[in-house]
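Extended Data, panel c. Modelled sequence:
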Amino acid sequence: MANLEHLQILKGSVRIRKGPFGGESFPYFVKAWNQWREENPGIEPNLSEANLSGANLVAANLSKTDLSRALLSGDLRSLNLTGANLRGADLSGDLRGANLSRADLSGANLSHGNFSGADLSHSNLSRVNLSGSTLIGAIFDNARVEYTHFENVDLSNVKGIETTKHSGPSVIDIKTIYLSKGKIPAIFLRGAGVPDNFIVFMSSLVGASFEFYSCFISYSFKDQEFADRLFADLQTNGVRCWFAQHDMQAGKTVHEQIDTAIRLHERLLLIVSSASINSEWVKTEIAKARKREIKERKRVLFPIRLNISFDQLQEWECFDADRGKDSAREIREYYIPDFTGWKNHDKYQQEFKKLLRDLKKETTIAGAAEASGHELDE
């Protein structure tokens, strides 16, 4: 229960006026309350279970206040709720520009509230109901979500949503997908428990075109550090991609998983390194990718050179028994980005930009080697 002294200070600090439906409501000024907070910095007010519905608390300082299970509605613009305890509270008012950073909102009802420009960074949003709320420009940096309800909300303009910490799945419905026009970071959707296959085709559901094709990165575990950087940079640049090793599931053979991966994704990024160049799985992936390229008459395979010399690449053989051809010779016709020395920032960026450009293209097999406009570099 609320501390009656604290509640009376809040109510007594301003003139009282009647609300539109009877009952008491707060007018437009909270100067006395804010002054009391400044004069008593060691007191953390207890307003738990208080009924503040219809309150006009514009710019009130309720930081570090216990508002658990409290009812807040009305004009709450620029309200300072930094570090407040709002567990189980009901906030359904106008909270534009409010500061809820580091607040504990677990189990709170924020449905149909206006949180445009509100700061919810580092807040606890576990089991929070955000259905129907307005989140234009809201800041979600490092907020924690778990079983959070994001139904019927536009998430396309939420800032820092890709940095949210997922302790469990959350609820995202088809209305949210459409309102957001599919512009929700894949890393957020994946953390919320949305299946990868749905994420891949989400943009097509709302009529948006893909800037990049989906990519499957295949690599040796010995090249994990490079693969991690490539994956992160591709995601940052809007490329939908998945790790080969991350997608491997128990109970399935490598051949089955490779076949599934190549069927589901438009591009196969194959990291050809000293650790992988002579492995059997590389031969399998190349064979399956080449088979699909021939069938669909478009480029699927995008090899990347890592820590192997030009001479090693030239001497490399990868015989495809089914086709009776050396696939390595065919692959060398493509421009192969050389990420050897990738820890050099400038060199890495130079090759990465070329790779990004090529991933955008729809290249036919007949013109695959020429379309990139490059020759093999020594």
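Confidence is low (pLDDT under 50) at residues 14-28, 246-255, 367-378. This feature is highlighted in the accompanying rendering.
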